Amino acid sequence: MTTTRRTFLRLVSAGAAAAFAGLPSFDAMAAATAGSNEGEFFVFVIALGGWDVTLWADPRNEARGIIHPASTENTDTAPLKRWVDAPLGDTGLKTFELVRPRGSSLVFGPGIGDLADMVDRITVVNGLEMNTVAHPDGQVFSTTGRHPQGGRVAASSIDTMISNELGREQLFPTVSVRFPSSYVGDDLDRRVVPLAVDDVGSISRTLARAQMYDSDAERDRVTAMLSEEARDLAKRATYPDVLEGLALQYDGLRKMLGSNLQEVFSAGGLRKAHPEFDYKARFAGGPAVNAAFAVEAMKRNVVRCVSFAIGGFDTHANNYRGQAQLQQETFDLVASLVRTLDATAHPTRRGAKLSDHAHILVVSDFCRTPQINLGMGRDHYPNNSALIVSPRFKANFVYGRTDADQLLPQPVRKFVDGERAIAPPDLLATFLGAFGIDPRKYMRDGEVVPELLRA
Amino acid sequence: MTGRRSQEGGKAGRGIGCIPSRLPAFLFILILSGCASRPPARVPAVPGPPLALRGVQAEDSAPKQDLRLVPPEVYMRTYLQLFGGLAPLEAQRRARGKDGSALFDRWDDYVSALGFPDYRLDIPRQTQTNALMVATFERLGVALCDRAVEHDLGATRGGRPPPMDQRVIFAFDLPRGAVDQNAFAERFDVLHRTFLGYPAPLAPPERTARFYALYRDIVAGHRKADPRSRFTPEQAGWAAVCYGLVRHPEFHLY
Amino acid sequence: MIRGSSVFVSALSPRSSVRRRIAPLFALLAAVLLAPLLALDADSAPPPRAARTVDDYRHFRTAAIDLLGRMPTRQEIAAFERPDFDFDAWIDAHTTGPAYVERLTRIYMDVLRLEPNLNFTNATSQLYRHEVLGPDGKSLWIYYRENQRRERPETDGEFCLSPDETGVVIRARQPDEGTPRRVTKKLLDEYTVLVEPWWLYRDYRAPKPQQLFGTDAWKDPDPEYEPVEGLLADPDGKRVTAVRVCREEAQTRDVGHVYASGRVKAPPKDAKLPGGRVRPPPLDRPYATQHQGQEVACDTKTALDYAPDCGCGVGLDRCIPGDSNSGGNAFYFPNHVPLGSAYPLDDARQPQQRWFPYWWSREAVRFLDDLFAEDRDFREILTGKQTFVNGPLAQFYRTIQRGHCCGPEASFGMLEESAPLFDPRNVPADLEPQDVSTWKAVPDRGPHAAGILTMPMFLEKYASARARGAALYNDFLCKSFIAHDQQLTPSTEPNLMVRPGCKTCHATLEPLAAYFARVEPANFVFLPQERFPVRSTRCRLDAKGRLRGACNALYDAAFSDAKGATLRSAYGSPEHADETPVGAARDIVAAPEFAQCAVQRVTSSFLGRPTTPDDEALLTSLTSTFVRSGYRMRALVRAVMRSDAYRKSNDDASDGGTGGRP
Q1: B138 and B39, same structural domain?
Q2: Model pTM score
Q3: Residue B18 pLDDT > 50, yes or no?
Q4: What is the structure's pLDDT at A2?
Q5: CA distance A403 to C102
Q6: Which residues of C touch B68 (CB under 8 A)?
Q7: Model ipTM?
Q8: How many domains would you assign to chain B?
Q9: What is the rounded distance in angstroms from the CA atom of residue A317 to the CA atom of residue A323?
Q10: Would you call B50 an interface residue with chain C, using a CB distance cutoff of 8 Å?
């Protein structure tokens, strides 16, 4: 984002006022960023199952405390381009050399893949305090900032929050491919209910229409009538939200069908249009098509958020051998996505690249134990890391930490509730804050961490 | 639905409001009486006059929840029943017919868009509509109605419909000539009961008229707009009415 | 409808006091005048309809959605419109039947999610298939097991033909190394054999099986039993009538013998290995040397590890095929069965590793279905001993599941499961692996069975003791583990029940997990008390503070000392560990929250919303009804559907109280 002097001064004065008050002034920030939020796009990725952060963001290659580093004993190293053998004490085994990108003080594990070459674009958050080691809980906590209540998701997910603020007018505000998207709350626009699918190809089939019996115009006539019906029923209803929402969705359908977007959702077409993604990757080959879809959909300005999952991280047993490769493929995919966004023009901002206005957040349920278990894998652990690629976040930057012996989150700053580690609600609140959105509108917990943001 | 409850507190309230200034003196006397060790005075019960209605205050007894989405299992069972009580794979075959995936793909393609949970991946069921779900409802609804018109209204039998007891959706004969409002309403009632579960005359008053307008518009425009269509204008009109009901908010919500 | 009635309605508008007085007279007059007309037309008139309101129709539709699993048909609506329609009787009549059962099963499947996203790989039962060049240069397939013991050092623990003999290093799931060469007939005859396997022959146990799949000889084939094409044809596409199998795998005996090769020392690193193999033949483990010649059951892991005279049994029925060297595909079955397995949405070619997980899921659903169909005591969801099995499950419980045992357990004297969760003797004898649609009840799985808690689907879905304990807490007591704002400080305290930051949840979770200490994680092997006491004096920490070998696999060094060791997951409550899942079931169903939770889940589902404090009176009443009925769901559902809250659920009308009357 190019910051004008006026915008900069507004932000500074807003920040000063906020600092004086002890809290971010969202009205001021919102006013300052409102215009600059037009045409922003978002990609949310979840590494399903819980990733081993010692292999990428919070690398550990020494046996210390309860930490058993990854080694040639428990990891298939042949496919890893960043794995360089290093002695693991006097065990005779080999662990990895830390990956130290040139021109950066950051260090990574070999799972970082191609993102090591893009360290000037990425922000890493370590030491996220999870307070859970259950998959459904961790996934929901990471994506909504609240733990489930009695099994129910208690808050909307980050993609829904963003779409509600910035994506209501898009044809597909949120497309969610196996991501734990949720829509919870009374004050949300029903147009932004996530379009949840198993794969993007099925969207194409759902939008296909035959012409053998009726015409597009005839079907559209029916949809228009139904929209009227829904609105009339809403007027009669005590609680009109669902019916009004349906009316909006009928209207949305009319636009969708009128936009002739089949090729955007055709998996074959996407692969052809974007050969730069590795569709044959062992683990991330399938999700690669979602990245291609994200690019095409952003290019046509029909989405605001694309959310998808990459599975296979829950390596309790011998399957841990593939964890590093899975991470490498995941971050290679992110790197490919960033490069493609660099090379793609923004659909509405003349002269801008998509990457100037695209924001990627990669999270996971939690991380894995620093110890190797009896099955040669790692179990669940209540710590976590996250990755952000966003022009609004400080790049070449790591925030948060864990202790040396047990990989537990450490206090990192003084929050309103005291000195503590950063937690997923804070990360999500900061993400919202980066766009001038008051997190309290959607989130009960979490504070904006200004240190993560560019001035 | 709101209820009414009379506000009964007025008279009593005024009564209560009168007593306080005399209360301390009264109590003082009572206490003195007690201290004197005499048995407490008994106040004989006297039936009071009936309370007069002083006003009405509406109480909101409306349920505090909105309509909910019909579960995808229910939607699918209903769909299959409307298709003639077929099993899913048989319904899929009939819907596809000889047209490949023109009208219908495969159930696999629709499962997640319809909101089914995926227990394997711990993906919960969807409880709200979204635009893609609405698109899927249209796709499936069009397939159902087109095949129903073919079957029930004889579109594939040279205009000869099957016996009435074999028709699930269009369980009526078409009148000869143009369909006037009354003829439409009678037949619309059959469809309204089939899809929405209650008689059309109990629906909001503009509904029948609205659907009749839809029918007329489709019939009028069909031959001009779509000369290659397999449907006659009248069949297309009834198909459109069917689309409108199988995609109606009252079909998908309850 | 009589057109004039609208006139009567307006005349009878409550706004008119005059109208109020004359209304009854008008009604009487109308009745007197019109009755003869109605009588004349009685024969041809439709049955009289009761004056139903929109609210009535909505209520009936909701009830149909809940109990019929679909919207009502026109005929059902017509029956509802009859004045003699008895809604209560209708509810009673329809709290039965497959749709009602599915309705309730759905509630618990949404909570438990008992479908597998996992592969069941069991080296003892998994057959791979690899191509070799036959004597005539044509390809042929040979089935084999990974790690099969063989007496030839060239092939012990590997494929039955050496790399020198085939030209290729053949290993399961690995790319080949080398160039194929023709295998002589002599070698084929010596080291392989043709078998009529169970997946091709209905009568595979017969001395000369005849009933080949896909021919008229197989009478009444189960239409749902469908092997993939790859299992039915040779590499040249010809129909298969027998499969070629490594000779050791083709052995049919039930009992084999521990084998010691005499190899106790690894060869030098540069030594030439026999037969061109790339890794040395397996060395004798101490167990083999100490128990050489001892009998071992052939369907156990112990046999795979130690007995070259053990194979896959008659017709290979202790093993499951795949059509490749990477596991491969085996059978067609659906991915999606939301309406039940009788109504699949698809039919897909599936990998062999998904075969049993699919049937585990169906077993769990059938168990739940039966619970609701027979209106059993709902507590049996945790305490019930019964289950249902079909052919694949019979095969699994009879023999395949035994292949999980025994590894480290053997060091404790357990060579095969001595106390399985499902006693194979209770498996119906008359179910063949191809009987996929034939289900039979098993009244009693065995003394350690506890409802769904000891079913493979539950134990695999919730693979660790803590996950199993948490499932009990969440799903059956409706409680959550939430640790708000707990700071985790580094600590060496192994006891999570006292460790700062952890104890909030683990003080409750560890004792729940302890109930599952005797069921191995990601497994269903049961560790009986007599061989695996909670506190073992046989396992002790050594001078370096470690547990050695098999002790470390089953006992927890963190809760051990120089005198003894504690069974893994048992430290939270040794008593619970010995009570096993049976004790968990007993204790959970005895908790008052159990009934409250069941009532809350069902009520919430039928009302279509979470229950709130305003529902307390309703829930209390329903809980009392539920418990008094003997924990029967039918009584609960009937009470819910007769409640005012149900009638008013989602009644969104704002029509001034007219209820939609004309």
Answers
A1: no
A2: 0.86
A3: no
A4: 41
A5: 50
A6: 608-609, 650
A7: 0.86
A8: 2
A9: 11
A10: no
